[in-house]
Design a protein that fits this description.
The chain is an alpha+beta fold and 499 residues long. It contains eleven helices and 28 strands. α10 (428-443) packs across α11.
Length: 499
């Protein structure tokens, strides 16, 4: 899908608003604009200036979405330099989301991600103070994506904080904010009308699907799946005196490698896992001191903010281990799974919503950007998320992988344009079918069952709405039939697609 913001076309916004391709584009900018803001640092502490950030989030959301890059310093009027985050900086998505939600009765999704990049050597300047900043910058940064609101988003209380001996009032209850140039300010009457026009359209774009709306009752499918069974217990044991290399060597001897196959997390010098460490045959037991092993109820970990993050990380490791064991390839740099191929194309049979189908999951194509033949692979990024205390969800984000040999991914700016072009050309039913296809592959046409302690429903979460998507015709699987016919077309002597 293409999102046009500020005259710039940014692809993959709805699918992956914080994908590496989008982050690469945004961090190449050095000036603020209506969809981009820079901050040196943010904080969610009670005594912090968080209301200033909340004001920007309100403005971006009413404008139609935007990004905030963190770790940039303004060196002169609207010219920003990447200086990185200090070592003591500590913010996570959960605390950021919770803090902003306290200011509104209509929560929006705020996506947050940290990344590393060494900017040194990429800038030149004759000014000594700029050179000094460049040479001292950290390589740790963060980015926030603010999604568009579906109604006028206003604070439900005052936003204020103390600065020195004075209390600063940033906004009052029910104030409306909007992005005008580089400012988060009150909208003019014309801008207010722009908000209303945008909201009329946004009301019909509530699902993850894209397309033009029609006014009919329809069930909208999401790319979220409910976790129907969680482990009852978490096992913790003090780690033996092993360094990272020793752990990798030991587990490789046991047939567990590479590192992303591990089903545990090292936390406070302990091994934390859903695996039963009291079982003498468990390979992870070799990493801990047996007398320190303890079995703790999962709900205790969920209630603790720090421990809860560990639970999410282990859940994500579980799905990686599970998918790799089912024969899928994993691209760890971008957290993407895909099927490899030996010939010019690969097809997989699956049960769609209404009938048995065949999906092309990888094929050879000629890429004009690269001036050579390469391979595209249908891929997905999995992720566990938590909404509320006990509500865990599993999310599938469809995407693509490009390879030179049918197995090993290649990346770069030109490869990125191929992936985004493939991504945003997919219509509603194609997107949904790809989501359901991967769930079918993971669950063998049923729920995903990981060991005996974790289960994910194969039915996507849905919502009934009095609106429809004109290109989404689930009753006839119109797009799916087109795709199946399209897959049968030969692309000439090379049996390849030209992009």
């Amino acid at each position: 899908m293409r999102e046009i913001v500020g005259g710039v076309v940014i692809n993959e916004v709805e699918m992956e608003p914080l994908s590496d391709y989008i982050v690469d584009f945004l961090k190449s900018q050095n000036k603020e604009c209506p969809y981009l803001d820079f901050k040196k640092i943010i904080s969610t502490r009670k005594d912090s200036s968080f209301p200033e950030l909340a004001k920007d989030i309100f403005a971006f959301s009413n404008y139609g979405g935007g990004w905030i890059l963190i770790g940039w310093e303004e060196i002169k009027s609207n010219l920003y330099l990447p200086v990185g985050l200090p070592e003591e900086y500590e913010v996570d998505q959960a605390s950021l989301q919770e803090k902003f939600n306290s200011f509104t009765d209509i929560p929006i999704e705020i996506s947050y991600r940290e990344f590393h990049r060494d900017f040194r050597g990429l800038f030149s300047s004759s000014k000594e103070e700029v050179k000094e900043k460049i040479n001292s910058i950290s390589n740790r940064f963060a980015i926030i994506y603010i999604s568009p609101s579906y109604t006028e988003l206003k604070p439900n209380k005052e936003g204020k904080y103390r600065k020195g001996d004075k209390e600063r009032l940033v906004f009052s209850k029910d104030e409306l904010f909007y992005r005008r140039g580089t400012q988060s300010t009150h909208p003019s009457s014309n801008e207010h009308q722009l908000i209303k026009k945008r909201l009329e359209k946004e009301e019909y774009r509530i699902s993850v699907l894209s397309g033009e709306p029609d006014k009919i009752d329809e069930k909208i499918h999401s790319n979220l799946f409910k976790v129907t069974k969680l482990p009852k217990y978490i096992y913790v044991g003090q780690k033996k005196d092993f360094d990272d290399v020793s752990i990798k060597v030991l587990l490789k001897q046991e047939g567990v490698f590479p590192e992303w196959m591990y089903k545990f997390k090292i936390w406070n010098n302990s091994i934390v896992t859903f695996e039963n460490l009291t079982n003498g045959d468990n390979i992870y037991r070799k990493l801990v001191l047996p007398e320190t092993i303890r079995k703790e109820p999962l709900e205790i970990w969920i209630e603790n903010e720090d421990k809860n993050r560990i639970i999410i990380e282990i859940l994500n490791r579980e799905i990686k281990h599970y998918a790799i064991a089912k024969g899928m390839y994993y691209f760890d740099k971008f957290n993407k799974f895909y099927y490899a191929l030996e010939k010019d194309s690969r097809k997989e049979k699956w049960q769609s919503r209404y009938k048995k189908a065949t999906k092309t999951v990888a094929a050879k194509m000629y890429a004009e950007q690269l001036e050579r033949f390469i391979y595209w692979h249908v891929a997905f990024s999995p992720e566990f998320i938590q909404i509320g205390k006990d509500n865990f969800l599993f999310r599938i984000l469809p995407t693509f992988i490009i390879t030179d040999d049918g197995k090993n991914p290649i990346v770069g700016s030109k490869e990125g344009t191929i992936i985004t072009r493939l991504s945003y050309s997919r219509y509603n039913s194609s997107y949904l079918n790809t989501v359901l296809f991967w769930m079918h592959q993971l669950g063998d046409n049923g729920n995903i069952q990981i060991s005996d302690y974790l289960e994910i429903s194969s039915d996507p979460l849905t919502v009934e709405l009095p609106v429809g998507i004109i290109y989404d015709i689930p009753s006839s699987e119109f797009r799916l039939e087109i795709e199946e016919k399209f897959d049968e077309i030969s692309y000439g002597e090379d049996d390849s697609e030209k992009i």
